[in-house]
Amino acid sequence: MRKILFLSLLVLLSIGLVLPATAAEPVKIGIMQIVDHPALNATRDGVRDALQEVYGYVPDQDIIYDMQSAQGDVATANTIARKFVSDRVDVIVSIATPTSQAAANASKEIPIVFSAVTDPVSAGLVKDLQQPGGNVTGVSDMTPVDRQVEMLKYLFPDAKNLGTVYNAGEVNSVVTNDLAKIACEKNEMSLIEATVSTSADVAIATQSLVGKVDAIYVSTDNTVVSALETVIKVCEDKKIPLILADPTTLEKGATLALGFDYYLHGRQTGDMVARILKGEKPSDIPVEFANKLVLMVNSKNLEILGIQVDDFKALLEKYVEDMRSQNVEVTLEVK
Predict the structure, then answer these.
(1) Which of 59, 98, 129, 240 falls between 20 and 30 A from 317, CA-CA?
(2) Taking a C-beta distance cutoff of 8 angstroms, is the pair 121, 131 a contact?
């Protein structure tokens, strides 16, 4: 009897030693972004910080990340997505539209949480914003194009022609460009377009707008933002105001930026990932939208353009007051 009890105790102890190791196995998260640039990098950092600071997932202990960039190449994005599937990651976080489409094509089972996607329905990622269905949900960064164009007209009332550079191969860019056309019509302006296929085309496309436009607008186009320095150089040389939809990239140059804080956007995405890790299904989680605007102005660029900084800042403050009176949450930052 004692021998049986002793053997039983050994079995129980062995089970006790094995179970915690199995329970403590870290989760695997594959994070893929279409290209490296400040907005997408900030989104990625926000995801990781939220999972650690809010939910206690310590990197390399509770959670293992496989972070990949497709470097602007869709074929590479597809390869990365297939790698995540073969590695059996627990969740795929896809940043930007092309990588999200690659992930959705690669797996119909692994939960996918997208971020920095303008129009997930048009991109074929979800069927319905409130009831996504399938294995995909996420956070949209549908930029407030109408307010960006409205702001431009408010600050530069004599502007008649607005130039824009975008990649017609990016679904998100086509959507925002169509919205920009509508917004320009409402504000009695014309939209002059220059399209690109790769970042190498951006300089020539921007040059083609010189002499035709009163200002240039760059939305959340990944191809153009990855080569934004070339746009900035043309605009500074020719004294053309440059308006961005991404405040994260204003530090590179440009005149103004009105848009979302992509780091907070990433943290919002991290919240959604945590819900899935706790057992919720992507099909049951409605798509969310970024909701806090940041308006940034670049003092150095204003000086380059010959604009009086203090007078322009006063005009911006009045514009922000007008927006807040419309219950729009916006923060003004002068750099």
Answers:
(1) 240
(2) no
219, 176 Cβ separation under 8 angstroms: yes
Pair 132, 280: CB distance under 8 Å: no
Q: Count Cβ atoms within 10 A of the Cβ of residue 266 and give its class: 0-12 exposed, 13-18 middle, 19 or more buried.
A: buried
- Residue pair 165/202 in contact by the 8 Å Cβ criterion: yes
Helix 38-53 to helix 262-277 angle, to the nearest 10 degrees?
40
pLDDT tens readout for residues 263-286: 989 999 999 999 999 999 999 999
The structural domain count of the chain equals 2
Closest CA to 118 of 276, 260, 271, 268: 260
Rounded Cα distance between 112 and 81, Å, is 11
Instruction: Give the CATH number, domain containing residue 69.
Output: 3.40.50.2300
20 domain-assigned = no
Contacts of residue 120, defined as CB under 8 A and 6 or more positions apart, other chains included, come to: 100, 114, 126, 129, 136, 138, 140, 287
**By residue range, what is the domain housing residue 90?**
26-141+262-289
Q: How many whole angstroms separate alpha carbon 220 and alpha carbon 96? A: 10
What average pLDDT does the chain have? 90
Whole-structure pTM over 0.85, yes or no?
no
Give the integer Cα–Cα distance in Å for 297 and 195.
Answer: 26
